[in-house]
Design brief:
With 77 residues, the protein is an alpha+beta fold. Helices cover 25% and strands 44% of the residues.
Protein backbone atom coordinates (compact mmCIF):
# COMPACT_ATOMS: atom_id res chain seq x y z
CA UNK A 1 0.00 0.00 0.00
CA UNK A 2 1.17 3.50 -0.82
CA UNK A 3 0.05 6.25 1.61
CA UNK A 4 -0.31 9.85 0.47
CA UNK A 5 -2.10 13.03 1.50
CA UNK A 6 -3.37 16.24 -0.03
CA UNK A 7 -3.64 19.49 1.91
CA UNK A 8 -7.15 20.91 1.60
CA UNK A 9 -6.66 23.88 3.91
CA UNK A 10 -3.74 25.36 5.82
CA UNK A 11 -4.71 28.38 7.88
CA UNK A 12 -3.34 30.22 10.90
CA UNK A 13 -6.15 30.82 13.40
CA UNK A 14 -6.41 31.96 17.03
CA UNK A 15 -6.80 29.02 19.41
CA UNK A 16 -10.30 28.54 20.73
CA UNK A 17 -10.66 27.59 24.38
CA UNK A 18 -11.17 23.95 23.36
CA UNK A 19 -8.03 23.85 21.19
CA UNK A 20 -5.97 25.83 23.73
CA UNK A 21 -6.92 23.45 26.54
CA UNK A 22 -5.87 20.42 24.49
CA UNK A 23 -2.60 21.96 23.30
CA UNK A 24 -1.82 23.47 26.73
CA UNK A 25 -1.49 26.98 25.32
CA UNK A 26 -3.28 30.27 25.96
CA UNK A 27 -6.62 30.91 24.30
CA UNK A 28 -6.05 33.15 21.27
CA UNK A 29 -2.52 31.88 20.66
CA UNK A 30 -1.71 31.25 16.99
CA UNK A 31 -2.28 27.71 15.76
CA UNK A 32 -2.04 26.11 12.36
CA UNK A 33 -5.27 24.41 11.34
CA UNK A 34 -4.36 21.78 8.77
CA UNK A 35 -7.07 19.89 6.91
CA UNK A 36 -5.91 17.00 4.75
CA UNK A 37 -7.38 14.21 2.69
CA UNK A 38 -5.49 11.00 3.36
CA UNK A 39 -5.11 8.41 0.61
CA UNK A 40 -3.98 4.80 0.29
CA UNK A 41 -3.17 3.58 -3.22
CA UNK A 42 -4.68 6.79 -4.63
CA UNK A 43 -8.05 6.07 -2.96
CA UNK A 44 -9.36 8.56 -0.42
CA UNK A 45 -9.39 6.95 3.01
CA UNK A 46 -10.28 9.74 5.47
CA UNK A 47 -10.38 13.48 6.11
CA UNK A 48 -8.11 14.74 8.90
CA UNK A 49 -8.09 18.12 10.64
CA UNK A 50 -5.20 18.81 13.02
CA UNK A 51 -4.14 21.82 15.06
CA UNK A 52 -0.49 22.67 15.77
CA UNK A 53 0.80 25.32 18.16
CA UNK A 54 2.84 27.92 16.30
CA UNK A 55 4.45 28.86 19.60
CA UNK A 56 5.81 25.33 19.87
CA UNK A 57 6.49 25.00 16.12
CA UNK A 58 7.30 28.50 14.74
CA UNK A 59 6.84 28.98 10.98
CA UNK A 60 5.32 25.51 10.63
CA UNK A 61 2.76 26.90 8.18
CA UNK A 62 5.61 27.74 5.76
CA UNK A 63 7.31 24.37 6.13
CA UNK A 64 4.10 22.35 5.71
CA UNK A 65 3.54 23.87 2.26
CA UNK A 66 6.37 21.74 0.89
CA UNK A 67 5.48 18.27 -0.32
CA UNK A 68 6.97 16.59 2.74
CA UNK A 69 5.70 14.40 5.54
CA UNK A 70 4.15 16.40 8.38
CA UNK A 71 5.46 13.78 10.81
CA UNK A 72 9.00 14.21 9.47
CA UNK A 73 8.83 18.00 9.77
CA UNK A 74 7.58 17.79 13.38
CA UNK A 75 10.23 15.21 14.26
CA UNK A 76 12.98 17.50 12.95
CA UNK A 77 11.57 20.47 14.87
Amino acid sequence: MIPNSRILRSEVIPATKYIADHLHIDEGSPVLELARLMYVNERALFHDTAHYSLIRFPDLEKKIARDESTYKILLEE
